[in-house]
Amino acid sequence: MMDSRQRYKAFISYSHHDRKVAEWLHRALENYRAPPGLRTALGEASPSALRPIFRDRDELSAAADLSEAIRDALDHSDALIILCSPHAAASRWVDKEVAHFLSQSSADKVISVIAPDAPEGVALLALAPPALRAALP
Questions:
Q1: Which residue intervals define the domain TIR in the entry (predicted)?
Q2: C-alpha to C-alpha distance for 89 and 108, rounded to whole angstroms
C-alpha cells in the first residue's frame, strides 16, 4: 500500500533563536528554480524546484502533538538541513531532530548551513549539535 503522507525534499532543523534566518532559508530554497541545463545534465527525473521544504512554524500550525508530527516529517524527508549556530549546538530539540533523522538515514543526507551570525573562526563542529558530531568520522 502506498504511503499518502506528505513527502518533503528536506527538513530544516534550527534553534528558535535563529528563526529569522531559518525563515529566509526556507523561502529561498522553496523559491529556487534549477536551470534547465542543470536539470538536463542530471537526467529526466530531476525536479525543477526544491519543494516542499519542512519548517515547523510553517507546517505545524494545526498539529495536536508536535513531537509526533515532527518525527513524522523527519521520517518523510529526503534530507536534513541543519542551521548550525551556537544556539543550535546547545538546543536539545535540534539534537533530538538530528538523532532521529540519523536513526533513519545516513549522514550523507545531512546538509550543514552555518548561520550568518555565527562567530568567525569557530569550527563547524563547535556549531553542530552532539548527534551530528557523533555521526561524523
A1: 6-137
A2: 19
